[in-house]
Amino acid sequence: MEIEIKVKVKEFANILKKLESLGYRYCGKKHQIDTYYSLYKRPLKKRKGQVLRIRYDKLSRKTRLEFHVPKNDMVATEYEVEVGDLKTMVKILTLMKAKKEFVIEKQRRVYKKGQLEVALDKVKGLGNFVEVEMEGHDTLKNHNAVKALHNKLGISSEQLLTGQHYNILKLQRLKLKYAYF
Known about the structure:
Blueprint: E1 2-9, H1 13-21, E2 25-38, E3 51-57, E4 62-70, E5 75-83, H2 86-95, E6 99-113, E7 116-123, E8 127-135, H3 140-152, H4 166-173
Antiparallel strand pairs: 1-5, 1-8, 2-3, 2-6, 3-4, 4-5, 6-7, 7-8
């Protein structure tokens, strides 16, 4: 189970200084291209929908098929499997009559300390985001740990985009109330 909250920022310089002062270590960068698909014939409200996507990382050249089931605004159960052949996976989804909804492309830099992970994301067409996440149980203690790090980074609770995943932000950008997932 993954707990995550993100916030939109103009730039990363102050966040980077604070991460360094807090002892977070740089773990690398990613260039992720997420293609969202739907398998259903009727639309679901955007906040209640499950997410099916293919995530391709241009730097590592790795592909994963991912299915996320939201539990609440901060928590989702994620089912992920590595796929050896991107073209074949896309062909399988096409043959299954899956509908390609949209693509989200981002440049990500990852920092970690203990159970907490911070991603600095430049998302094409959406902006810059700081995402704090933690693998763990859906407990008040874990929720508070994620929120506390935002506070240490100088981010107020009013700035937090709770429940605002990139796919939802993309739907808003496209002025759509829902997608078929």
